[in-house]
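Hey,
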Amino acid sequence: MVADRKIIDQVSGWLTVYDDGFVDRAWTGPPQFKFMSDPVPPHHHFIDGVATHDLLINSKSGLRARVYLPEVPETGKLPILLHFHGGGFCISQPDWYMYYNIYTRIAREAGAIVVSPFLRLAPEHRLPAAIDDGYSTLLWLRDVANDETYDSELSTKGDFNRVFLIGDSSGGNIVHQVAKKAAEENLHPVRLAGAIPIHPGFVRSVRSKSELEKPQSPMLTLDMLDKFLSMGLPEGSTKDGPITCPMGEELQGVELPPYLLCVAEEDLVIDTEMEFYEGMKKDGKKIELLVSEGVGHSFYLNKIAIDIDPITSQQTSKMIQAISHFVANH
């Protein structure tokens, strides 16, 4: 009986887990924030220069994706951004308003097609499920490029020689994992032109200085960080595993694409993100760094802050410009 359910875990506002395995992801935080997690229906007509549609990637697994298509002159093929949403591997969907608001802007300003798969979520589907879904979407893009399957927009307008991985928060972790897997695969005619992890959730079991000293925010608290990872990481794994702790990993001989690492000055996990950056440089990998000043984790997904706080608005625009510039130059 539903009435007999008992709560066994909870992440305030975002997620409740019951003893019978049921997971409730209904927003229970302040009602004025609920709209950011509301799904936006696809629209095939252009709104503010972007059209969207949903497609089925794999009928057996049910893997789907949201596609953002910018309205641009018919002057050539468009780069493709393969996007992995955040949410600590446990919440969010690519059709949520918070992603729609930003990725329509990125599609429009970068002049790129954005493909964002609906990743399986923990705790029902622990990692590596979301990584596998992200990689499966990349292999599906290879099938489209080889005319083994067809999508009306990607098949005719996508430039498969310029595919970029991009992801927010835990999606940034997936970017790095998919990039490493792709290094072992023949993706021809797809070429990974770049990888853009935005505020990736790189951590250790021992708290970093920034975790202890930086302010917590609505987009990331220490409780969210700990609980989402305890639900999302593979059984028996810890924060020190390769998915969340790639700092110092051996990357010699791994052919990674150029990276644009985006970090936020007030992010709880900036210390470990910067450690990853220094490690990549030490290993001779091509990596650029964008530091957003005066803002915290995933600030650009908070539409209310964008509207009322000039610093958040300015840093969001700067980040989108940097991403667009990186895409244009690769």
